[in-house]
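Suppose a colleague, Dr. K., hands you the sequence of a protein chain of 136 amino acids and asks what its three-dimensional shape might be. Before reaching for any lab equipment, you can write down a predicted structure in token form. Begin with the sequence itself:
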Amino acid sequence: MNNTHSRFDFLRKAFILNIGMLALLYTFGMYINIYGFGTMNSFPIMTHMILATLLTLVSVAAIAVSVMEKSAKHIYASIASIICVAVAFTGGMLFVANGQQNAYSLIMALGFLGAFIANMWGAAIPKQQTATLIHQ
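The predicted structure, expressed as tokens, is then:
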């Protein structure tokens, strides 16, 4: 298998992994919302924050690989993903730090939704469309 196919496969798997992590983040977030905030050391909150950090790391890796792949659509999808993840992450940290204000919850939710859409788009890019390279 050549490098182009393995990088494409990595990108597809990274976007799909991000979608799975977003689903888990949503599940833990709803659990926290329904059953209470608890302490910062509770399992749902720690898991939620660890998953958010892993999501950020996988998104950064997807940007790096999409640049190596020189696929404009993957670059756009991965940049959109990391921007939305950063918005959601910031909204979540402000939500926790400022007493669970609804505005920060909305920012977190909108960032989540944007990240979900960007990762769905990235995972749906067909292999033949990766040939639309950025010219050097």
